[in-house]
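re the bet — no i am not wrong, look at it urself. input seq straight from the record:
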Amino acid sequence: MNAELQFFGATGEVTGSLYVIRTGTHTVLLECGLIQGGAENEERNRDPFPVAVEEIDAVILSHAHIDHSGRIPLLFRRGYDGPVYAHTATQALCEIMLPDSGYLNEKEAERENRKRRGTGKSFVLPLYTREDAEKCIGQFESSPYGQRISVVPGLTLCFHDAGHILGSTIVELEFAGEDGTSKLIFSGDLGYRDAPVMNPPATFSHADTVLMESTYGDRLHRPIDETLDELGGVFESARANQGNILIPAFTVGRTQDLLYLMAENFERWKLDKWDIFLDSPMGIEATDTYAKFRHLYGVELFRPGTSEPNLPNLRETRTPEESMQINDIESGAIIIAGSGMCSGGRILHHLKNNIWRPECHLLIIGYQAFGTLGRRIVDGAETVKLWGDSYRVRIDVHTVGGLSAHGDQADLVTWYRAFENAPPLYLVHGEQKAQKALAQKLRKELDAPVTIASRGQKTEIGPVAG
């Protein structure tokens, strides 16, 4: 029989990636991501996995971002003890990100249980703990790009560079069945053609089934030159207004892109006039990992022979005390802090101290999922709540799309165009509006046999033709 692919997470949405591959008697998870975007959505993370844990033989992970990796510790907590296949740099990043996610789960459970004391409501347990995350890392089996790995009998895996973040991969799977060999290509998250740090995504000429992300399937990013001009204008305006600049940034990918661009445009943007803070312990660790794996990309992000970014006035603030001291600065601070969607982390403290100040600026440089604070701000919320208190949104908000780590519609169409045999294409990891626009574009330009994947849908991965 042929291999079968079934879709579960990231269908009609951009978080919680999870797909199931069945090859006869074996079952493999492709991705195991956390669902993000508000309390109601995130409660779905506690639901049972779509297949019995004891039936899962292996997990394949495309990259380290939490919406792709964040339920792996939960899978182990529920009894899984098999391998997790990932790129070597992805494992290194997961060693940082997954324990941090576990720690945040513990703190969230503590906060909720404090509210429940004396109410008669039962206490909640964290989704998983830091210890759960640390234990699961021991089951990772990592490899570089281009190395073929036997996952289960008849199923071979090979990772290729997706150009999205450090260690991000396009997943190539070959299944040897009775009817011949079949090939599935999963794009993972594809990088943007003007990505400051990462290499362009690998392309392929042939596949039997293609699974492709569609995050920005309905739009074109601003050209990088225009983005750089816009950033320069924000810095100039903020300097004239004598305010601060807050930048909520994903700790892996966007933070390192920003540090590189700031170093490259240091004089042009007159950044010597600012105090620049990387206020994210995890972002600092992730940046150190980028230094360790600098052979995977083609630019010089660090001072030669060191893991120090090329910014002379950058200060890395690790401790809570150092972070709190930043809030004493009323003017002249550029603060890069997580989380990238303003859904937690130190950026919330900086918003509390600056969101009501019209002389300050908020730079949004990444995707904001439905239900997150970042999305509400981008959509024009007049007030927001932080720790129960309401604050007027008077900060000047800038959405800079040209710094996305995801390819836009043109990048996605170009990537699929490289397939010479026009294989069946399934769109995942996108909101419905973006997916419909991308599907229409692909059909019109390439006559592509494209389907927008739905939850629970199954498809057979047929053998290579000819």
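see?? The chain has two domains: 3-219+405-461, 224-403. told u. also Residues 88-116 form the longest helix (29 residues). so pay up
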